[in-house]
Amino acid sequence: NTLVSTELFKMYIYTFQRNKPNHEGRRKFEKRTSKTLTMMSSQDHVLAHFKKKNN
Asked: Record's superkingdom (predicted)?
């Protein structure tokens, strides 16, 4: 469900910006997030959207 994915993205992005993790934290965060997103949805445009937001 794309709508659910978008809401989860907003949540992840909000958490990411709020916590401002250091480099190591960021790597762990991205690993954990991409694992969750891969399980959740394999839609490429969704993953691309997420990466673009966090660059």
From this structure: Eukaryota
